[in-house]
Structures are given as C-alpha cells and as structure tokens.
Amino acid sequence: MVLTVTNLACARGPAQVLAGLSFSLKAGEALILRGPNGSGKTTLLRTLAGLTPPITGTITHAEGAIAYGAHADGLKTQLTVAENLTFWANIFGVRDISAAITTFALAPLADRPAGELSAGQKRRLSLARLLVTGRPIWALDEPTVSLDTENTARFAVAVNAHLAQGGSAIIATHIDLGLPGARSLEITPFIAKGMPAHDPFAGAEPFSGADL
Amino acid sequence: MTSIWEYANPRRFMVASGTLLPWITGIAALCLIGGLIWGFFFTPDDFRQGSTVKIIYLHVPAAIMAVNAWMMMLVTSLIWVIRRHHVSALAAKAAAPVGMVFTLIALFTGAVWGQPMWGTWWEWDPRLTSILILFLFYLGYMALWEAIDNPDQAADLTAVLCLVGSVFAVLSRYALVFWNQGLHQGATLSLDAEQNIADVFWYPLITVLAGFGFLFLALVLFRTRTEIRARRIKALITQEQMT
Amino acid sequence: MIGLLKRDLTLALRAGGGFGLSLAFFLIFTALVPFGIGPETGRLAEIAAGLLWHGALLACLLSLDRIFQLDWEDGTLDLIATSPLPLEAAAALKALAHWLTTGLPLVAAAPILGLLLNLPGPANPWLVASLLAGTPALSAIGTFGAALTVGIKRGGLLLSLLVLPLYVPTLIFGALTATRGAQGLDATTPLVLTAGITLGACAILPFAAAAALRVNLR
Fold this sequence. Notes:
The structure holds 3 protein chains of 3 kinds. Chain A is of the alpha/beta class. Helix content of chain A is about 25%, strand content about 25%. Chain A is globular, with a radius of gyration of 19 Å. In chain A, about 45% of the residues are buried. By secondary structure, chain B is mostly helical. Chain B has a domain at about 60-190 and about 210-240. Chain B is built from 6 helices and no strands. Chain B has helices at about 10-40, 55-85, 85-120, 125-145, 150-180, 200-240. The model of chain B has no long low-confidence stretch (mean pLDDT about 85). By secondary structure, chain C is an all-alpha fold. Chain C has helices at about 1-15, 20-35, 40-60, 65-75, 75-80, 85-115, 125-150, 155-180, 190-215. In chain C, helix 2 (about 20-35) crosses helix 6 and helix 3 runs antiparallel to helix 8 (about 155-180). The radius of gyration of chain C is 18 Å and the shape is elongated. The model of chain C has no long low-confidence stretch (mean pLDDT about 90). Classes of the chains: A alpha/beta, B mainly alpha, C mainly alpha. Chains in contact: A-B, A-C, B-C. The interface of A and B includes residues 13, 202, 211 and 212 of A.
C-alpha cells in the first residue's frame, strides 16, 4: 500500500465535513473520488496533501510522496511556460522538463508568458507540473476543468503512463476519464457535517451548572 | 486531587469562575475603595511634590498592571500553543482590552502628573514611551483577533504575534533607555532597592495595587466567560447551518 | 532552494512586478519633507539622517503585502507548502528577495537623497552602514507580518499596524547611528546593536513566519 487512510475525519475551518473515512491505494492504482458539490472532496485532498491537519484518524504514506494538484492553477502569469516548469523542477530537485512539455503538448507555447494562455492551456501547464514533481501519488482536484475533449484524453494518457510506471493517483472528478481499472470512492456516506465531536464548545447539552 | 488543567475545560471553567467571580469582584472593590481613600485623604503631602504626588495611587498600579496583563497574555498564549486549551486562548483575548485600558490610564495619569512636575504634558521619556509602545502592541494584537473569522486560526496567529511581540517589546524597552535617558523619577517599586518610598505611602499603595490586581482578574474572568459564551453561540450556529 | 529566490527576483523585475515603486516612494517622501519642515538648510541638515531612516522604513512597509499575497491568491503558496522546500526556508528566501529588491536599492539611494536634505558629508558612511545593517531586519520582520495577514482580505492596513511597533528597536538604533554620524560622533555602538537586531530577526523570524503560514494555509 502506498497510501492508507484509517477512520479519517476532516475539517474545513472550525467545522467537520467528513468522518469515518477509510481507504487504501496500491502502487499503479487510481482512485476516483465521487460526491456532490460541497461534499468535502477538496477538503479531503487538502488533508491528504498535509495542508489541513485531520481531526481524527491517520494517513500513512512515504515522506514526500504526494503531489497535490489544486483547483487553482498556481501559475505565475509574468513567467513563460518553460520558466514556470523550470521553477517547479528546481523546487522538486528534478532536472528535465522536456517530458512534461511533450506530454501536454506545450512545446509551441513554451516561450509564451503564462498570463497570455487560455484557461485550458493554463490547466495543461498546471497538470504538466505534476510530471516535474517526480512524486508517486498524485492528489488532484478537478483536473479536467476547462480542458477540451482532446486534452482530457491527453491527461488520461498521462495518468495511465504514470500508473504504468508504478505511480498512483487519487482524483476528484465528475467526468469519466477512461482510466481502465480505476476504482471509485463515493464519499457521500462519509459526509458528517457539524462541529467536531471533541469541540468543547459544541455538544447538545447546555453547560451544566453554569448560567448558559 | 484534580489537576489544574481540569479548569481548561470550558464547562468546568464556567462553574468555577461563576463561583469565584463575586468574591474576587468584592475583594477588588474593597481594596480599591479602601486603598484610594487611605491614599488620597489620610497620607501627608510630599515635601517637594505637594498633593500632586497622590496620583501615584492610580499611575503606578495601572502601569504595573499594563505590563503584567501582557505577561499574562504571553503565558496563556504559550499554554494554548503547547497544550491547546481553548479557555487559555480566550483568556488571552479577554485580557488584551483590559491591559490596553490600563496603558491608557497610565499614560493619562502620567500626563496629568507630568504637567505640574515637568511643565509638559508629554515627554519622550523611556518609561512613558515604552508604555505608549505597549499600547500599540495591544492595538495590533486586538486588531488581529478581530480580523480573523475562524476562532482557532485567530488564536494561533495571535499567539505567534504575542510571542514575537514580547521579544520586540523587551528589545524596545532597552532601545528606549539607550535612546533617551529621560526625566522620569526612579522606579516606585523595585525588588532590589531596600526602600524607595516611605511606609506611610507604601501601605496604601500596596493596597491599591492589590485592588488593581483583583480588578484585572475579575475583568478577565468576566470577559473570558463572555468569550466562552460567544464561542458556544458560534459553534451552535455552525452546527445549525451545516445540518 | 535558489529557484524561489531567482523566481522572486525575476518577477520583481518583470513588468507589473513593482520593482522601483518603493524607490520612487522614497524619493517623493524626501522631496515632500521641506514642504512640511521648511526650506532652511541648517534645520534640514539636522534632521536629515532621521528622516531618511523614516523614509526608508515607510518605503519598505509599502511593499510588504506583496511578499505572500500574490502567491496566496494564485494558489502557488499551497503548492510551495506541499513541496520539499521547508516553509521556513521559503519564508527566509522571500525575506531575502524582498530585501534585494526593496532594501538594497533604498540603501543605495539614501546618500543621493541625503543631498536634497543637505545631509552633512561625513554622515554618509554612517547612514549607508546603518541602513545596510538595519534594512534586512525590516524585511525579516515585514515577512513575518505578511505571513500573519496573508489570509486576510485587504490586510494591508492591519499589516502596517502589526509591523510598525515591531520596527521600533531597529528604527531607534538605526536612526541613532545615522544621527550620531551626522553630528560627527562615533556611532559604532548603535551600529553594532542595529546589526544585532538584524541577525536575531533573520535567525528567529523565518520560523515564526512559517508557523503563521501553516496556520493560514489550513
């Protein structure tokens, strides 16, 4: 198992959104997160990425294994496509950005400032960043937003290649990506909205003995 | 024997503080009224400063408590950072406006005292100036609490600010002494000096000081209780909205 | 590691990066001083060193909210936080980038602006030395303030309110160095104290800034 999640409860701000969630992910496996808007897919991914601490439960994976792909593109508009990728390659200690460029067909755009790209082109650049992280587990939040059919297929090819090399992916998406053998995880049963059980200010009974 | 940390639970704290509050308020009122009447009407005038010196009974305790309030915030912030006791963070939040008012009292009474003594309302003296800077620290701290919606996040960020602010407040204090030697008379109360002022002024001053201490405690308890209620309401509203 | 510094410097120098704005502010601030104080050269010379310190401090303050705000808005900060780069290092590099693009040009410009205020010639080495020793502390403290307020919309004013009291010791020692220098006195002691604050601030504040960033990214 490259990723094991046990009895996880996640928070957005002061409130709990998901609870009792357990799953695991093997090398070469993709997991599709399904659930209605606002159900907590983004919260779950942020928790997996280590940005938000879980309320309870454990997340086990190798140190520095998860590459987080957020809803925001995270691009610098004044830098060119190649400069954006080079920056991330440098941060992640990877030397070569050519694979990322070719996979997402960014070569014709390489010297254009990211600010001049269309929304779909920006998305492709943002996804290409995943390849320069060199990390095995991709945690992606709605990766195909503003991609056309051709580029959605391109993305599916990239994910399949990543899986074939022994990587894994956990993807929140509403569309069918065409990933053979991908499992689905419906998070609706785990929605548990409200204040966390341990919150000392919540709870049904009034503050006993005190004038509250 | 129950651990002191039991009272970090909001319910426990509400019960305990509810019982203690009337007593503390009573002691504060007794000490303040008694000490101030004693100090104002039953002590002789100073041979140099005349009756002006009697403002000491407001000025000195206010200045001491202004600094102590910040120290209490530092300790409660540390407890929040280390042990995650919510009441501790709320007590720090509750203490800030009280401490800020103490700095204002110290600054105002200092100006009123300085006018006849030094011939000026304001002097850039290191002691006065450090209280002014402490006032600015209180303002920033309170503004940061107000600016953040999520209470735990606000507690964390204000705690970090309080820790860093404390270091810089101490630095400022030494920088100010270096910067301007000042007109201010020596410390009224200090631990190393044998005796700074005559007993006849000392006893009422100590009484008023105790009064200010208990007043601070009472106000902080009262305000912490309010903050706990506010947090409870906030939690209930969140619960309501989400289900 | 060096990639973040290089990127921040590139961004500052490109169009819309805001490089030079602080410098322009410093110039305008200095040019406006005589309109408030009066054109008398003797009086200006007396207060020039302190005023230049004030100008540099305010110019530095103006650019603080850019340190993390832009990276926060476009989602880059989330990605940096999940990268192998420790947030402490990121905060330190951000402070360094801010100093290189804001503090250093101010140091270089100060003697030239000193001419406008009739700053005595012998004061210049002390002024430059004090700014060189003190402005890194301004950047480090400012980076901490920016990290505290990164999640707050329109947090610029709050940032100033939080950071200005923290600037007091640096300002006192820095301006004292420059002023004593202008009076022809030896100012080694305040200069060493200014440098001490800078070293302390650069050693400790990246950790505080990283802690604040982690809380804000939750």
